[in-house]
Structure formats: structure tokens, C-alpha cells
């Protein structure tokens, strides 16, 4: 879980982290964020602190903290502390452990990330089976409107995925770290039914589902209603990437149109979805993401919405 055992969570102290998806890893001059001096990292994290966040998920699409040398990691953590931030969890992006070309390397990286999470006190790591964007997706205004990689409909690959996530879970359990699997279209956790089947096959108490329903309701295709999905996912809910979308469906033509929305205005009622999860013992942190515009400021607005709809007090997970 992402909170210490026995912690009573309230709407004021529930961990709500800022994502870093609005910051690129490669800078305009072609250099990498990995190689920036600490002062440059500090300038970026000024944005996060100024937006009112007290928690941060480094998000490895911005900075791969598991690939920093020990001295550089210390530099980064010093900046995080200086800005009054903590790191409740770390998310991976497009580093699938079953990637046909890089899967073995990504598995080794995932183990390093668990070790790094333990070192810095993060209590959850989010993994997914989604892979690099295709050239066509990179050209699109919204990448989710273009077909991307599809996990193979192959029992051997499914079983490999199950085995590798169980391996990561065994490692994470040594540190009481949660392994959250991110919901994402056309992956083994790309529908509620498939996700429940997958986590049941893994069968490890450290594994949860990152119920990122925004990744699904934004698709320009038929999808299961979010409420129906959440009813299936709630018993397994863990570290949660929260974002929302407007979604319009024309039943006469089959046309579907979506666009990013602030958390309280989109098609998903997070007030209801969160209550469903909490009723099943959810006590993990949130990560706030938003695509388009000033994503950090929208996420800050979303944080205040979450503070309003979270319960005034919640007993520890074991007392739920």
C-alpha cells in the first residue's frame, strides 16, 4: 500500500502526486533531462511546488531515477526535499516487460526501479504493457485516436507476462511495495474483464490494478461504461492515475468524439468511482495527469476537486 500501516487517511493528507508527463525527457537543444544539473531539475520542480503539490511522481518519461548514479540520485532527492515534495510512488511508461525487442532489458530496469523505490521510500510502482508510440500516433493531435501496439493473443506471451509480473511482485514484497498494473487499451489489462483475469492469474497480494479509466473512455470506439468497469476493478484498485475526458457518442452513426477534461467535468464521476474503491479497501496514492494545455495547472485544479470528494477520514486498509 502507499500509506504506512495504521495511517488514518483524510481528505487533507491523502497522497495526491503530480505527474511529469507535460515535461519531455529530451530538451529543445537535444540534451537529456538525465544529464541536467540539479539546478535545472530544481527549476522544473519549482513549477510543481508553485502549483501547490506536496507529492511528486518522477514519471520515467521525464526522468529515469532508477538509471541515475547514486550521487546523482542524492542530488535529485535533495532538490525534491528542498521544494517540500515527497515521492509516494513511481510510474513507468512504455517499458513493457514483454516487449518483443526490449522486454529483457525492461525487466531488469523494473527490478532496478523497485530497488530505487525502496531506497527513496516510495511505496508503489506502476507498470504497464503498453509500448512505444507508433510514428502515426506521434503525428496525431491526440495519440489515442490512432491504433497503437496490441498485446499478442497468445497464451505463451500471456503466461510470460504473468510470470514476470509475479517475479516483480516477489521482489517488491520484500519492501512492502505495491506493484500497480496500469489499465491501457489493447493490453492484457486493457479491459476490466481481462484485467481481473490477469491479476487473478498473477495471484500475488502485492499486485493491484491502476484503474486509469481515462485511458479507456478516451478511445474513439465502443467501450464498456466506466461504472460497470469500476464495479469489477474496485476490489483490486491500487495506485491510481486519475484523469478524465469528455466523451460524446452518436448512436445513429456510431461516431465517438473525446477530448481531455478536468476531473470533475468529464464522463467519469470520480466521486462515485473513488467511493466504490474505498469500500473495497483502497488506500493508495493518486497521480494526476492531464493532456493538452497547461496540464500541471489542470492537475492542480483536479487535486482540489479530489480533496473535496475524498472522505473526511478513512481507517487504515486493514480496518476497512
Record keyword descriptors for this entry:
single chain; TIM Barrel; alpha/beta; 36% helix; 320 residues; four-stranded parallel sheet
What does this structure look like?
By secondary structure, this protein is α/β, with parallel strands linked by helices. The protein has a single domain (16-319), classed as Alpha-Beta Barrel (TIM Barrel). It has helices at 38-50, 70-82, 103-120, 135-139, 155-173, 192-202, 214-217, 226-233, 270-279, 295-309, and strands at residues 16-18, 55-56, 90-91, 124-127, 178-182, 207-210, 240-242, 244-249, 256-261, 286-288. The strands form three sheets. A four-stranded parallel sheet has the order 2-1-10-7. Strands 3-4-5-6 form a four-stranded parallel sheet, covered by helices on one side. Helix 3 (103-120) packs parallel to helix 5.
Please tally the helical runs, counting DSSP H or I stretches of 4 or more residues. 10
Termini gap: 13 Å
Q: Could you give a short account of the major beta sheet? A: 4 strands, parallel
CATH architectural type: Alpha-Beta Barrel
What is the mean pLDDT? 95
Flag low-confidence runs.
none
Q: What order do the helices and strands follow?
A: EHEHEHEHHEHEHHEEEHEH
Shape: globular
DSSP strand (E) fraction?
A: 5-15%
Kindly report the spatial arrangement of strands forming the biggest sheet: 2-1-10-7
Amino acid at each position: 500500500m502507499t500509506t504506512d500501516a495504521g495511517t488514518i487517511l483524510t481528505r487533507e493528507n491523502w497522497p495526491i502526486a503530480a505527474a511529469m508527463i507535460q515535461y519531455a525527457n529530451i530538451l529543445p537543444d537535444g540534451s537529456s533531462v538525465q544529464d541536467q544539473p540539479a539546478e535545472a531539475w530544481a527549476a522544473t520542480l519549482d513549477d510543481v511546488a508553485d502549483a501547490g503539490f506536496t507529492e511528486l511522481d518522477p514519471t520515467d518519461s521525464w526522468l529515469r531515477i532508477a538509471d541515475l548514479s547514486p550521487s546523482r540520485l542524492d542530488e535529485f532527492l535533495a532538490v525534491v526535499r528542498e521544494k517540500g515534495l515527497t515521492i509516494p510512488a513511481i510510474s513507468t511508461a512504455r517499458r513493457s516487460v514483454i516487449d518483443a525487442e526490449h522486454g529483457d532489458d525492461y525487466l531488469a530496469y523494473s527490478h532496478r526501479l523497485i530497488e530505487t523505490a525502496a531506497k527513496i521510500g516510495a511505496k508503489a510502482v506502476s507498470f504497464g504493457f503498453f509500448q512505444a508510440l507508433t510514428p502515426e500516433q506521434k503525428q496525431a493531435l491526440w495519440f489515442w485516436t490512432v491504433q497503437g501496439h496490441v498485446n499478442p493473443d497468445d497464451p505463451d506471451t500471456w503466461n510470460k507476462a504473468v510470470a514476470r509480473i509475479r517475479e516483480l511482485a516477489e521482489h517488491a514484497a520484500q519492501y512492502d511495495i505495491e506493484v500497480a498494473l496500469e489499465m491501457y487499451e489493447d493490453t492484457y489489462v486493457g479491459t476490466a474483464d481481462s484485467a481481473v483475469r490477469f491479476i487473478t492469474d498473477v495471484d500475488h497480494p502485492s499486485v493491484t490494478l491502476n484503474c486509469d479509466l481515462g485511458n479507456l473512455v478516451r478511445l474513439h470506439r465502443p467501450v464498456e461504461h466506466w461504472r460497470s468497469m469500476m464495479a469489477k476493478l474496485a476490489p483490486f484498485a491500487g495506485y491510481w492515475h486519475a484523469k478524465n475526458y469528455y466523451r460524446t457518442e452518436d448512436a445513429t452513426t456510431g461516431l465517438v468524439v473525446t477530448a481531455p477534461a478536468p476531473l470533475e467535468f468529464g464522463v467519469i464521476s470520480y466521486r462515485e468511482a473513488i467511493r466504490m474503491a474505498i469500500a473495497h479497501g483502497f488506500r493508495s496514492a493518486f497521480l494526476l495527469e492531464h493532456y493538452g494545455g497547461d496540464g500541471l495547472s489542470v492537475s492542480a485544479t483536479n487535486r482540489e476537486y479530489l480533496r473535496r470528494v475524498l472522505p473526511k477520514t478513512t481507517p487504515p486498509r486493514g480496518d476497512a
